[in-house]
Amino acid sequence: MDPSIYRRRIIINKVGMILSGLAMAIGLLGLTWILWTLFYNGLAAFDYDFFFKSTPAPGSAGGGLANAIVGSLMMVGVSTLIATPVGILAGIYLSEYGATSRFAAATRFVVDIMLSAPSIVIGLFVYAVAVATVGHFSGWAGSIALGLIAVPVVVRTTENMLNLVPGSLREAAFALGAPRWRVSTAVTLRAVKGGVVTGVLLSVARMIGETAPLLFTALNNQFFSADMSQPMANLPVVIYNFALSPYEDWQQLAWGGAALIALVVLSINIAARVLFRDPVRS
What we know:
Blueprint: H1 3-42, H2 48-52, H3 66-97, H4 102-116, H5 119-131, H6 139-163, H7 167-175, H8 180-191, H9 193-208, H10 212-217, H11 235-243, H12 248-275
């Protein structure tokens, strides 16, 4: 090889590595700046009142986000119970039964659209179906909206994980006389359960921070309420309202709520990557 060509390739490689490292450093710097600002302002709001008292009235001192925390937990919990079985079963069908099915192809197309659709569109759809028809906002409507956001994440993750299972594993189960449904649930799904759980956790992390769908469905509630058939407080909407308010105590609570959501999302993502990495060993 011509030495000049070799030296040029080395130079190009070094320039590429330097530019890649610089881009990574800029990204990490921006992320660090955001997290530092968020936690510096938000962690100061963490105290007893923050976790055990409801949102305060305008201009009043004290108060916390207990009603919003409980409301978010209830709606996200219900949405997870809805999205998990639906998403996993749909993912099993697409991977194990829908290789050449037109219905499966149409389902994949719809799932891709739902994955890329703005959350506000889903919120408007649920508003028209579950809010306008009954005449009032509710926690159930919020759970439906969040569930529609989570289902495509679980479907796509489950299908991708099942596609990683070696065909020899299925063939061995079929050779033993196991029916297809048994192979799908007891063999292939069990082999990638870590990846499927990761998909569920990531869908939960996405639901926690969604604001637009809840503005059109659950709205808000200044008081503590566990009645899912009525408007329900939730962290994203409370953060949105309090951050735009002229009251400093409300703004501090908004910082605290944002920090709490960030901590939960970071914890879920870290747990998903650490506990369930490398689900399939080919």
